[in-house]
Amino acid sequence: MLCSARSSAHAGLVALAIFGLLAGCASTPASTPAADSATVDLRQTLPKVGVLDEPREPELLLWGHEEGGPFATYRVSADGAMLGVENGIFIATARGEWGWTVEEKPARTLSCHQNVEKFDEEGGKVLRAVAALRDGSHPQVVVSEAIPPSDDAGPFEQSVSLLGSLGPYLFVQERVTLFGCGKNLRETVAFRVWDLEGAVWNGWRTELTGVPALQQEVRSKLDERLDDLRDDDPRSIVPELTQFRPSYGASGRLGFQLLFTRPTLESYHDTQWSFPSESMELASEGLPERFAAWSQLPAGITRFLAAHPRIFLDGWSTR
After folding, report:
1. CA-to-CA separations, 278 to 102, 234, 238, 245, in angstroms, rounded
2. What phi and psi, each to the nearest 5 degrees, are found at residue 173?
3. I want to staple 200 with a disulfide (CB 3.0 to 4.6 A). Which of 23, 301, 303, 312 is the partner?
4. Alpha helices, H only, 17-101
5. How many CB atoms neighbour CB 94 within 10 A?
6. Residue 111: which domain range?
7. SS3 state at 68
8. Residue 56 and residue 58: Cα distance in Å, rounded?
């Protein structure tokens, strides 16, 4: 999540809650959310927003969630007034409003008990993440279905997380996990930045600033975790930048959370990235020029979040 009215750094850090994939794929060695009874369900008190005519003045679309709840998109005026809300994630660009959907279907894997191909509800799942305009036109396949390996058996799962968005830019993490027979785990994580107005953005690593200094900082902090009894010595390994995601602090200024990863022993795997690896996320205030338009939260969003402190912001755009 990008931020919340009640939190500052952490919500920005781990929540818009953002590592390297296809377009910016990183890695080989190996990613989201029960509201209490006092929570007001805005979806029961506000009208659902459909396809509207061209608005008389700009509107803000922000998507987010309440703790433990599903994602919803809120339509907000420039002065922070709620205009509508609907379930799901919708993002506005110059071409229109895009809906984010993740389609799921069972995966076909080999059974650990029979040496035959078997379709089983317990076999796992594969996904396809698609962004399309509200009328279903111009679909963009952001993440394709993974293909279970033919040389191993056991449950196979693919998961996709939309870590956040800034205007047309989607920050996407994909995780593919195979629980092989005999507890043989294979897990691969990938990350990409997808531009709804220009497809995948491959050069994100080269546009982020201050990376070398952050790499060394992460290296030192990971080294501090080392046990002298460890068989390996990863101190010489400089962590790689594998993922990044946007976050907004209490001031409403845009920053990024950068994830750095290096390989490690299986017993020290921390599950943040591909198996086996260890990772750490650090904040960066460096702002690539392409994100200048989102460098500061609009006053309307700031006021809206202040009025609805249970909502965590994950992304926003302007209609």
Report:
1. 28, 10, 12, 18
2. -120, 135
3. 23
4. 42-45
5. 10
6. 3-318
7. coil
8. 7
Beta-carbon neighbour count of residue 91 at 10 Å?
Answer: 26
Q: Which of 185-189, 214-218, 291-295, 309-313 has the lowest mean pLDDT?
A: 185-189
Mind giving me the DSSP string for 129-192?
EEEEETTS-S-EEEEPPP---TT-BS-EEEEEEEEEEETTEEEEEEEEEEEETTTEEEEEEEEE
Closest CA to 278 of 261, 294, 293: 261
- Which 3 state secondary structure label does DSSP give 259? strand
Q: 205, 258 in Cβ contact below 8 A?
A: no
Interatomic CA distance for residues 50 and 134, integer angstroms = 9
Q: Which pLDDT band, with edges at 50, 70 and 90, does 234 fall under?
A: low
Cα 201-281-220 angle, rounded to 5 deg: 120
Could you identify the residue written with the tokens 């068989």? 231
Residue 41 CB contacts under 8 Å (≥ 6 apart), including other chains? 35
Kindly tell me the burial class for residue 205, based on how many C-beta atoms sit within 10 Å of its own C-beta (0-12, 13-18, 19 or more): middle
SS3 219: helix
Count Cβ atoms below 10 Å from residue 20 Cβ, excluding itself. Answer: 25
Which residues is 318 bridged to in the sheet? 60
| pTM, rounded to two decimals | 0.78
If one counts every other C-beta atom within 10 angstroms of the C-beta of residue 114, the result is: 9
CA pair distance 309, 64, nearest whole angstrom: 12
Residue 83 buriedness (CB in 10 A; 0-12 / 13-18 / 19+): middle
Nearest Cα neighbor of 157 from 143, 178, 180, 173 is 178
Helix, strand, or coil (residue 227): coil
Decide: 123 and 106 in contact? Cβ < 8 Å: yes
Identify residue 197 by its one-letter amino acid code: E
Number of domain units in the chain: 1
